[in-house]
Amino acid sequence: QCRPRLVGVCESSGVQITEMALRDSAFWTLHVRDSEHVFMRGLVVEGDMNFPNNDGIDIDGSSNVTLLQSYVATADDAVCIKATSGGERAVRHVLVSNCTLRSRSAAVKLGSETKADMTNITFSHLKVLDSNRGLAIQLRDHG
């Protein structure tokens, strides 16, 4: 890719990310890819509101992922759930709760790349501010 992600959790298990601020990413800010049992709480993710494609948190091909009590403000999708691994890694058991999301695109997005199934995804107690869309579902692939 021409621009790097700020933080990547790839092919990992048992990861905890708590009480951390991530700011001004050149691309996706936090990418959780092909991982399981990832717990995130108390994150502050802030990107330039005029910068294209700077997603906040992308949960991709991962299972048993929890995001709690966090603030995400980015120009592109604040939280995006996707499956880019060619159908090899489904997304299962994701919880996003008690978060404040701000985005010039979608506060929560399912898809854009859905090459595997996505099941048991729960969003609860989300506060959406100044977003183009609260929820976007973009399913174009075979998942």
Uncertain runs are: none
Q: Fraction of residues in helices?
A: under 10%
Shape: globular
**β-strand number:** 14
In CATH's first tier, which class applies? Mainly Beta
Range of strand content:
over 45%
H/E series, N to C?
EEEEEEEEEEEEEE
Structural class estimated from helices and strands: mainly beta
Largest sheet: 8 strands, parallel
**What is the fold named in CATH at topology level?**
Pectate Lyase C-like
User: Please, what is the average pLDDT?
Assistant: 93
Describe what this molecule looks like in 3D.
It contains no helices and 14 strands. It has one domain: Pectate Lyase C-like. Helix content is 0%, strand content 59%. It is mainly β and 143 residues long. Strands 2, 3, 5, 6, 8, 9, 11 and 13 form an 8-stranded parallel β-sheet that branches. A 6-stranded parallel β-sheet has the order 1-4-7-10-12-14, with no helix packed on it. It has strands at 7-10, 13-18, 21-23, 30-33, 36-41, 44-46, 57-60, 63-68, 71-74, 79-83, 91-103, 106-114, 118-129, 133-138.
